[in-house]
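To: structure subgroup
Subject: Chain for Friday's discussion

All,

I'm putting the inputs and outputs inline so they're searchable in the archive.
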Amino acid sequence: MITDYVNKTVVVKYGGSAMKDEALKEQVVSDLVQLHKAGVKVVLVHGGGPEISALMIKLNKKPEFYNGLRVTDRETVDIVQMVLCGKVNKTLVKMIEEKGVCAVGLSGIDGKLIEAETLDKKLGYVGKVTKVNIKIVSDMLALGYIPVISTVGCGGEGEVYNINGDTAAARIAGALGAERLVLMTDTPGLLADKDDPDSLIRRITPEETEELKKIGVISGGMIPKTECCAEALSLGVRYAVIIDGRAPHSVLNDLCSDESPGTTITGIK
């Protein structure tokens, strides 16, 4: 129930279809504001892949992907920074503040929040997180703001890196000692049968996810998501959930229900 999260931190990773649909975007922001007003310390970590691709195409630059990650050359990382730190971030901040709550837009560059190094030379400026300096986020929470964080990071020699949103959210949640990490996706959660939405796995441990990976039940894009959840738990987060961001009020329903509408990954029985 929502009262279980009063004065506790909840990190929400927002992206996918819920970000592309304006009505859903409005609902997500309303949910976050409602949680904040109820006393929950909300941190919003966002992506913006479709917006990045759209601008690249306008600039006659073809988006390329390798193993599910965006190939990010020097020109592309500039586009990523413009879209994520600029348009997407400030739009979300504006929407939150229009509902009477103070928000502050941050990126992984601010306060060296996310330090990174090259993940794979084939990917260019895609970063592997090496350190999270959480003070700037903690300070904003203490002042009563909702931090809205875009997932770019900084290198040791001034480089800017494109950081996977789920990875960034997991590391930020761990550094904050968050009670809950919520990953909004385009699926109902983990499915025992990927073709059957009624086969939702409601609750699972990190160890059990490893077994399901071995037999192919967890595959494709769900592999990195479950790995991010497991990493968050290893860093001290109590619960990590994968929910369907396309469903109305999915974040609010997750925190207000005795059982999440998605999949909860936790070591707590």
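Points worth raising on Friday:
The chain has a mean pLDDT of 92.
Residues 2-265 form a domain with the Carbamate kinase fold (CATH 3.40.1160.10).

D.
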